[in-house]
Design goal:
Elements lengths: L1 E10 L5 E5 L2 E5 L7 E7 L2 E9 L31 H18 L19 E9 L2 E7 L6 E3 L8 H4 L2 H11 L6 E8 L2 E7 L6 H13 L3 E6 L2 E4 L5 E4 L2 E4 L10 H14 L5 E5 L7 H4 L4 E6 L2 H12 L7 E5 L17 E4 L7 H9 L4 E6 L2 H13 L3 E8 L9 E7 L1
Parallel strand pairs: 10-11, 15-16, 15-18, 16-17, 18-19
Antiparallel strand pairs: 1-2, 1-4, 2-3, 4-5, 6-7, 6-9, 7-8, 9-10, 11-12, 13-14, 19-21, 20-21
């Protein structure tokens, strides 16, 4: 380890400040462009110790757990709480612009749709049992140390208010000193908690946890590695007037406002399409909305998610027909022949993107495509394939739903 003073010239794609050293870039968390910082450096990573010059864009972080002086250590849940709103939003929009430029795509990128504090409806924390009780929070950046979370300004208040209840539940179920994960989701009927990576839980521990859950208020379901322990109420979400019962461990968009903004862009673009394919459909975030105006073919590999979508569609009023197909789109993308009667497509893949599927879109005659992505780099790659295949990029809108992080969603609209 060495100590030195560096000048930060940019914020990188992972949210760390970047300084130039004689051997290349040095990554320094919690810093901003123009700042002069004394750091303790190990290889190409530095931890700030003191500032001789600070940026006028620096603001006081709203959470006491944030930063090198955070209580209990620097919580790794956020990386950019110290940056003022406008430059922070410009940075996130810039991530999308830079990714597109790297693939030779020059287009106007809309202003970032902002995320507000207290909107995050799902978080995954880390827990460990200690001699002093349960530690529940987020891992300190770059370490395995868990920072006990007492407040969390990104999360919905109903999650924060019940963290003590979650600690009681996992205290009853856990054993040993190995860390495990706790996925907490806010639903219309209460919290949906899925505890992951636990060692074998015996009947006595299950009963003790069950007694706690039934006494605590505000829990819809508690599962262990996707196996339901108890479900006082079905965890429900509403997708534009359609109620969906979530399977344990199912994916949901991180905030309701961001989901609604993305869905509005997608549905508006495909409003005149008679038959739409919704790929990587999940539990129906887009499919159920699109079915208000179009017949929808929903394709998803996760069987429980697809079953939840199908159940919701069958019990909803005022929808056009929704057909479902379980299919691994990475191994078996829809072919042009499969798309013969489809005139609009939406897709929202994992971070890896939809490269194989986009090659098939490029060979098809589908008129309109709405691409939703959580990774600007793979989105740019996929858009390059579609543009080279004859599609015209109409718009790109970045959307923030992971507040004070370096992650950014985007919706890109294309047509032939």
């Amino acid at each position: 380890m060495s100590t030195e003073t560096v000048t930060i010239h940019a914020v990188g794609a992972e949210g760390d400040g970047i300084a130039r050293g004689p051997e290349g870039a040095i990554f320094v968390p919690f810093t901003l462009p123009g700042e002069e910082v004394a750091i303790a450096r190990v290889k190409n990573h530095g931890m700030p110790m003191s500032w001789s010059k600070t940026s006028p864009e620096r603001v006081a972080p709203p959470c006491k757990h944030f930063g090198p002086e955070g209580k209990g250590g620097a919580c790794g849940g956020c990386s950019l709480q110290h940056w003022a709103d406008q430059p922070y939003q410009d940075y996130k929009r810039g991530l999308v612009i830079d990714a597109l430029k790297a693939k030779g795509i020059e287009t106007e990128v809309a202003p970032l749709f902002p995320c507000l504090p207290g909107e995050r409806r799902r978080v995954t924390m880390t827990a460990r049992l200690t001699d002093k009780g349960v530690v529940l929070g987020f891992a300190q950046a770059g370490t395995h140390q868990i920072v006990q979370v007492e407040e969390c300004p990104i999360s919905m208040p109903m999650i924060v208010a019940r963290l003590e209840g979650v600690r009681k539940i996992i205290g009853a179920l856990g054993s040993g000193s190995e860390p495990f994960r706790v996925a907490i989701g806010a639903t219309l009927s209460g919290l949906d908690v899925n505890i992951l990576d636990l060692k074998k839980v015996d009947a006595k521990k299950r009963q003790a946890a069950l007694d706690i859950i039934l006494k605590e208020k505000g829990f819809a379901r508690v599962s262990i590695d996707g196996e339901i322990l108890v479900e006082p109420q079905k965890p429900m979400l509403d997708f534009a007037g359609v109620s969906v019962v979530l399977p344990p461990g199912s994916f949901t968009q991180a905030t309701v406002r961001a989901e609604d903004a993305m869905a509005e862009l997608v549905a508006g673009h495909l409003a005149k399409s008679k038959r739409v394919a919704d790929l990587f459909a999940g539990t129906g975030t887009f499919a159920l909305r699109l079915a208000r105006k179009s017949a929808v073919h929903a394709v998803e590999f996760d069987a429980p998610a697809l079953a939840a979508l199908d159940h919701a569609a069958r019990n909803a009023q005022g929808l056009k027909p929704i057909s479902i197909e379980r299919r691994d789109l990475f191994r078996r993308p829809l072919l042009p022949l499969d798309l013969k009667y489809i005139d609009g497509v939406s897709f929202d893949p994992p971070r890896a993107g939809a490269e194989a599927q986009c090659h098939e879109f490029a060979r098809s005659k589908v008129a309109k495509i709405a691409a939703v992505s959580c990774n600007p780099v793979t989105l740019a790659r996929d858009l390059r394939i579609l543009i080279d295949g004859g599609y015209k990029l109409k718009s790109v809108t970045p959307i923030d739903q992971f507040l004070w992080s370096s992650h950014v969603e985007s919706v890109a609209l294309l047509e032939r």
